[in-house]
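Please, structure for the following, as tokens.
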Amino acid sequence: MFSIAICDDEKAICAQMEQIFQTYRDRGIATEVFYNCEELFDSLAQGAYFDLIFLDIEFRQMNGIDVGKKIRNELHNDCVQIVFISAKQEYAMELFSVRPMNFLIKPISQQAALHNLEQAMALSKLYDSYFEFRFDSENYRVPYGDILYFESTNRTVSIHTKYGEKILYGKLNEIEKRAPIYFIRIHQSYLINRCYVTYWKADEVEIARQVKLSISKSYQKKVRQILLQEQ
């Protein structure tokens, strides 16, 4: 079951999005609607699980950005994909700290909603696929969804994950060929998981609020296109 939360105080928006996702019922899609951020956060805090949240930004009390930060920082939920929605555009660059999958402007088209659903379903598979390797006669399997970035140094590659670091002998070029599409090359030495980008500028990217990595000049145009691409 792939579970979607829709959080918006406009009942018409919620009804529209529920109707859009009706076409995916036969693929195991379930939706739940919340009309304020407090209800959504309380549900998550009590153990509710969602793969994808469509979250409006403008609310009278706790706004969407605030609840997004609480989901990441207080509930330590890095797996759920968040798509912010708003009638205004000026929020776009504020949202990197929440690591949203996307930011949509109202009115939301069926095409945009379904495209983001497809993306989130593909991302959820990161936790069903593993990077497998051998080091010092031991075998390892790391979910791609837990990997922040790969770093190449001489003949070794460090795998930086949410839970620590592992090392293997190998070449970053070969790892890049095996990695899912959400891993992007930013430097001769770095292959990053774009899901954990919290901030970036022309020559630098921040990963999971932990480390800043250089974007080499030869990759800057491509990285910019990927991080700014319209969904």
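The longest helix spans residues 110-124. The first strand starts at residue 2 and ends at 7.
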